[in-house]
Amino acid sequence: MRVEYINPFVEAAYNVLTEVLATEVKRGNLFLKSATKPVMGVAAIVGLAGEVEGRVLFDMSKATAMKIASVMNSEELTEIDDLVKATISELANMITAQAVTKLHELGFKFDLTPPALITGENMEISDQEVEALIVPMESPHGNIEINVAVRERS
Amino acid sequence: MSTTTTEAKGLKETDRLKQIDFKMISFTLAGKDYGIDILKVKEIRKAGNFTKVPNTPIFVRGVDNLRGDIIPVIDLRVMFNLPAESKDAASLENIVILRLESLVLGVVVDSIEKVVGISSESIQPPHPIFGDINIQYINGVVENEGRLYIILDVDRIFGTPEAQEAPAERASEPAAPEVAQPAPGEPVVPLDLQFVGETLAAFGQFHLSPLNREWVSERLKEWKADRQAKGLDFQVTQKDEAEEFLNSFPSPYTARIWPAEVADTLAGLLAFDASSVVVWNPGCGRGQESYSVALMLQTRFPGKNYKIWASDNDLLSISTAPSLILDDDELDLSWKDYTVQAKNGLQFNSDLKAKILFEFHDVNHLNPMPEVHLAVIRDVISYLKPSDQEKLVTELTDKVRTGGYLLLGTHERLTHPEWKPVGNDTWSVYQKI
User: How far apart are CA A60 and CA A66, in angstroms?
Assistant: First the structure.
């Protein structure tokens, strides 16, 4: 993944999460991964198109999704209902959009697709050997793994 | 090739060597010395902050993230009921990463010492007197330089039940024969070279292969003479020794911008028909090599359009590449036209930068590249595991167009039917035929 793309995603994730959760968020070590990957329970996917092709995947456990949605909606949510799903999709949208805005300022033109949310047990994402940058974010409400796979159109 | 002839060859080479056919990583547990067969060891590292897993035996420290792979971490001291210093959770522990038949796991030990080469004949069967550790987990004991090492049988300790049930032949049949059995058709690697290769892999992440064997053999001769003059053993046993052994391996002008006359000598070996030249530069580090190639193409092949795909898997290095700060004194005067004075110091101008695309990328993953005219990959392949080395060479052969070039490290040599050497002493250049 192009070096210039890394920081916008990391910064956007940090800024948005700190703001909406109103708490301290920690970033784990970034690393590259190229393998089929299990999904923790709730996954939001935002596609990227334009000069590049790729996608951003936000992965978290159901408990984390519910806690985050509860904080963002200021009410106690205890099951994965439409409100939780809409909230997590919106969170994915906010982070990706902020990253894309930062990239626009640097002169890279990306478009993004509306987020898709997937929930369930024992799921795997397998995009054929695509190398992804993993940005682990740790919050008091649980961990979110942001999985960014972007490549140049060659 | 049978073991006996390989050993016979070793015999001729030096007298000392005839005795050394087993190597182990030595470490301490509660003040005593232990060893593990080096062939079972994947790497050593320091790590801490393991993620605890509930409902596991107390000797399981948790799981650790080894560059994306989750591996279990086991505390050998706890497992063998030995006293362990209690460290606070955040401090780093010494870990030996083992690669067994079916799993990779980390074991926590007190301190990791060095690689010890011994003769398998000198391994003696375990005696019940070494009562700290259950005798069935011990391969044997051996004395070396006044220290007594207990060699652990990691297959039996961590292996699957079937492996444990298999009749284990102890000291009478040490692991040495596995070491020296090259597949039929492969050239025989002399024993001393093989030992040095194993140590370099463990400590220097450098892997002996046909690509660098010529250099390692030459270096070994030089090394032996040098060490003998100093009255030292020629075996490479420690990390700093491995680094010293390898310090003449990197190609000239690594990690710096090539001077103009150096770039000229390389340009003289290359010719491109196409109007647009695509370059692939994996393992570019902080980008000096990529910029040097860009300057060479810019000045010595005027009128050609070019694009460089550069990548590295070290986040810190590659992050600084797009805005590399140049050392004013070291930079060749003729490159001054391509630089600009930025806030933090001298940098290359945006026209030159626009030609290079820096990526955070691991070359072992899928390389989504167009076909290239030139691949610059100096001193990178030698640091990959042998299986990955082969894979990458195949991929390079695939990705470089016919008539295109491959630039390897000065000390790397490629023998392949599709590659014709066209380089010289400084530039290890191959042309695809």
Answer: 10
